[in-house]
Amino acid sequence: MTRIQIPxxxxxxxxxxxxxxxxxxEWAGLGWETGGPSEGLVFALGGALDFSYVRSPHLxxxxxxxxxxxxxxxDYLTRxxxxxxxxxxxxxxxxxxxxxxEVDKGRPVMVWADIGELPYLRVRLHMSRNDIxxxxxxxxxxxxxxxxxxxxxxxxxxxxxxxxxxxxxxFPTPTRHxxxxxxxxxxxxxxxxxxxxxxxxxxxxxxxxxxGAPPPRVEAAEVESSGLKGVQDFADDLRCWPTLFDDDALTxxxxxxxxxxxKAGTGGGLFRTLQxxxxxxxxxxLHDASKAWSALAAAAxxxxxxxxxxxxxxxxxxxxxxxxxxxxxxLEDASRSVGTVDIDVESxxxxxx
Length: 353
Description:
alpha+beta; 15% strand; 45% helix; Cathepsin B, Chain A
C-alpha cells in the first residue's frame, strides 16, 4: 500500500485557478520577488479578463455570469515558460494514473473537479471547472490529500468522491479527469514583455478580438453574449428581469447574481478585484508609477465596486458598461506603457471596430 504526501505551502485564495497556480508557482521556487507571485499577479498574467452573460430557462438559476475567459491557466503557464500537457480521459483508472504518475515523482498536480461532488464544500451548485491540487494519497485509507483555494488546510477526500468530481458531466463542461502535467522552468522570464502581452490579451478578449476557447453553449439560451457587448446586454437584460421572472425565479436569479459576482470563486467583484491587485503588483515590480497604471487600478476598482452593489439599482446598472469600457481602455494604455508586447491589439481588432 502506498502513502505519500508532498510538503506543500498553501494559502486560501479568492479564485480556484489563480490560487492553485500561485501555490504551485511558489512550490516550484519561482517568482519575481521573494515568496512567489500573489494571486492577483497570477490572474493578471493569465490575460483572461472577460465577461460572459447567459440567460436560459434550462439553467438554475436562469442567469449565469462569469468574468474570465476559459484559457487563463494555460495562458499563464505558457507566459511564464512552463511546458505542460493537459490530459483528459473518460476512463477513471487512466485518469487516476495521470495523478499518481505525477505525485509519485514528488510533483503536486492540478486537476478539474466539480464543486458539487467535493464533500468538504457542502454545496448543491455544480460547476465542473474547479481547479484543485492533489498533493498525495493513501491507498490503505482510500483518500487523496487535496488543496482547494476555498479551504485553509488540506482536505482528505475519499477516492469515490474524487472520482465522481473528476468524471462530472455538469455545467459548463465535462471534467473528464482533466489533469495538468507541468514541467516548470528554472526561472521566470522578464516580467515586462509578458505583462504587456497579458494586459493586451485581456483588452482583446473584452473587445471581442481575441481567439480563445469559446464560452460554454447553453441549450435554449435566450441571451448569450460576451465581452463589452455582453456587459451592455447584461445591463439591458437585467432591467427586464422583474417582468421576465416570477417571484421565486427572480429571487433565485438575484441571489445567484450576487454569488456569481462575489462568492463563486471570483476573488470579489467578478475578478476585477484580482485584476486590480495584479496590475498594482506589476507596476510595483517594474517600479512604474506612471499615470497609465494609476488609471488602470482605479478603473478595475471602480468596476468591481459597481458590480458589488447589493441592489444593482437602475443607475448603477447604467454605469457598468461605461465603467467596463474605461477599464478596457486603461488595459490598452497600460500594455503600451510597458513596452514591447506579444499581442498587437490593433491588428487583432482590425475589421471589428
